[in-house]
């Protein structure tokens, strides 16, 4: 879908309306805190014309309380939304969201033409650059500590309040937290186990998570797992929380379970055929878990829905890999 083609008069009319509302005090009240600062929502109950800009977290928070965004980020590396997001959209019925191409910058005029009541941007990585322009379109829910770094519970509750559905949001958060507790109780063998989480590169090496503060490490810590000490000692690169590992040093990826994000069968065959990777203790005993992009996103983009999906789908396979 082309998200940039609009009627010539639509964007201008919508922008004029937004500027009028802003002058009347109906838009976001924000106060500085860190890079972005939180938004104080004044959105009326029943708000339904919502645009989600943050990948996974913003879309899921709206869906969880029964609101299907009119537009959301184009699925990353997938032909359709993640399975839990797709299931929620289908269960709510109605028109599916339009996909937005946010690779460069948000199509501001097109967003204005959609006449949203609210823009969700708690997980939008470019919000610092575009927050003022977006605030001319509609009220914006901003991150507090930074894009995709606020606890998923806080984001879900804040968006629920902004949509006038605070009680439903609280219920959804409680259900997801309960799913995590059940999974931890069901798979006690995960407690105290070490893991590494990596992705293969075209140069024959890997990028691996190397910080216990990374979202994936924090998410697996909820089940008692710990990032393997060998990767935690690696120097960080310019990519926060990650370190490069050359093909010759792949032994650093050994752990109680070795997780590798695999984007294609061809890619999987490429690294699995390497003798050093095949020689890892975790690989030899069957404690190696390749996961696809959807499962990787469930861990990397924690939301009120993705965390629940991971607890019921990814965690059981992770436990089964422990030997």
From TrEMBL:
Residues 38-322 form the Fe/B12 periplasmic-binding domain. It comes from the Bacteria. Pfam families: Peripla_BP_2. InterPro entries: ABC_transptr_periplasmic_BD, Bact_iron-sidero_bind, TAT_signal. This is Fe/B12 periplasmic-binding domain-containing protein. SUPFAM superfamilies: Helical backbone' metal receptor. It is found in: Cell envelope. Its main location: other. GO terms for biological process: iron coordination entity transport. Keywords: Signal, Transport. Belongs to the bacterial solute-binding protein 8 family. GO terms for cellular component: outer membrane-bounded periplasmic space.
């Amino acid at each position: 879908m082309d998200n940039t083609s609009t009627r010539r008069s639509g964007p201008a009319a919508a922008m004029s309306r937004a500027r009028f509302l802003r002058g009347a005090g109906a838009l976001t009240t924000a106060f500085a805190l860190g890079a972005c600062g939180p938004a104080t929502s004044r959105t009326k109950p029943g708000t339904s014309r919502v645009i989600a800009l943050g990948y996974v977290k913003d879309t899921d928070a709206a869906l969880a309380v029964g609101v299907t965004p009119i537009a959301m980020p184009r699925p990353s590396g997938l032909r359709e939304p993640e399975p839990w997001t797709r299931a929620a959209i289908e269960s709510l019925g109605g028109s599916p969201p339009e996909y937005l191409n946010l690779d460069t910058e948000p199509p501001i005029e097109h967003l204005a033409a959609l006449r949203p009541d609210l823009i969700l941007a708690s997980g939008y990585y470019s919000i610092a650059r575009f927050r003022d322009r977006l605030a001319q379109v509609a009220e914006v829910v901003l991150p507090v500590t930074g894009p995709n770094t606020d606890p998923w519970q806080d984001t879900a509750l804040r968006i629920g309040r902004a949509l006038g559905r605070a009680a439903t949001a609280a219920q959804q958060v409680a259900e997801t937290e309960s799913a995590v507790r059940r999974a931890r109780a069901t798979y006690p063998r995960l407690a105290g186990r070490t893991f590494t989480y990596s992705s293969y590169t075209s140069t024959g090496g890997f990028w691996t998570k190397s910080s216990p503060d990374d979202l994936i490490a924090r998410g697996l810590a909820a089940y008692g797992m710990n990032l393997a000490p060998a990767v935690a000692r690696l120097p960080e690169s310019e990519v926060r929380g990650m370190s490069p590992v050359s093909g010759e040093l792949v032994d650093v990826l050994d752990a109680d379970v070795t997780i590798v994000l695999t984007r294609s069968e061809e890619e999987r065959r490429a690294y699995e055929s390497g003798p050093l990777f095949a020689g890892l203790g975790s690989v030899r005993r069957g404690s190696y878990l390749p996961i696809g992009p959807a499962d990787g996103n469930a861990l990397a983009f924690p939301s009120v829905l993705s965390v629940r999906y991971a607890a019921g789908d990814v965690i059981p396979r992770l436990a089964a890999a422990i030997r």
